[in-house]
Amino acid sequence: MQDAIRTKIDYAEISRLMQELLHLEGSPVAIKIITSKEHIPEGVAVIEEKITHCQMVNKARKEGKVFYSLNENHACMGGSWALGLREITPTLKSGEFYFKLGKYDSWAACKRTILNIPHVESGATYGIAYSPLEKVPFDPTLVLLVTTPKAMLKLAQSNLYRLGGRITCNFSGIQSVCADASAQVYLTGRMNFSLGCDGSRKYSGIEEGEMVMGIPAEMLPELAAALPVVCGAPGSS
């Protein structure tokens, strides 16, 4: 069975709209969670490096690269676990890893944090494909944006344009791009904002004045329809 979205979505036009209205530095990044070998996008090559998920995102965002990755291409154990590519390591599961990094006052605090990190079932993911949204050759699972808080504001307002309400974000300051903006969005079907983490800011080009967010791909048409209205509204800054 073809692993695709039944609704036809004009990804190139949505990318153009987002880049123009949100003044993005780089492209929105289309990400596909590949569940089996048969669902590897046709004509897309595997990456030949071993780097982190957030670095792969940056390759698509800033360098325009289109590729897919397997477990062996992922250098970050926490990120590849969150994305369902491998089992959690014993030191991460116990809390030891983050305790040794000095991020928590106690081992128990580390354990509580790890227990609440959104993660795809281990082994459920065969690979992950990446592409700039404007030239994506496959239907993505989600789209990642790295941009300013002001642009995030417009995305939040666009999300609430039709029905209103409130937005609840979920993050912990670690595993931002992999767990907060990718795994969680995949599992819940809801957009999520995150502040970035030490690793993603150090290795993947997230600047001091930028945040990261994930959007379910199915949500793109409605968000894109609202974005010009929200950005052009009389009360918009």
In short:
This protein is an alpha+beta fold. It has 10 helices and 6 strands, in the order αβαβααααββααβαβα.
Descriptive labels:
alpha+beta; 237 residues
Chain-wise SSE layout:
Elements: H1 11-22, E1 29-34, H2 53-63, E2 67-69, H3 77-82, H4 90-94, H5 96-100, H6 107-115, E3 127-132, E4 142-147, H7 149-160, H8 176-188, E5 192-194, H9 198-203, E6 211-216, H10 220-232
Antiparallel strand pairs: 1-3, 1-4, 2-3, 4-6, 5-6
Helix pairs in contact: 1-10, 7-10
Rg from Cα: 17 Å
Total beta-strand segments:
6
What's the order of the H and E elements?
HEHEHHHHEEHHEHEH
Mean of all residue-level pLDDT scores: 95
Record the strand order, biggest sheet: 2-3-1-4-6-5
Number of self-contained structural domains: 1
Largest sheet: 6 strands, antiparallel
Query: Which residue ranges are poorly predicted, with pLDDT under 50 across at least 5 consecutive positions?
Result: none
Give the termini separation. 46 Å
The portion of residues forming beta strands comes to 5-15%
Total helical elements = 10
Structural class of the helices, strands and pairings? alpha+beta
Helix content: 25-40%
- Choose one word for the global shape: globular
Question: What does this molecule look like?
Answer:
- The chain is an alpha+beta fold and 237 residues long.
- The chain has one domain (12-230).
- Helix content is 39%, strand content 13%.
- The protein is built from ten helices and six strands; from the N terminus they run αβαβααααββααβαβα.
- A six-stranded antiparallel sheet has the order 2-3-1-4-6-5.
- Helix 1 (11-22) packs parallel to helix 10 and helix 7 crosses helix 10.
- The longest helix is centred in the last third of the chain and has 13 residues, at 176-188.
- The radius of gyration is 17 Å and the shape is globular.
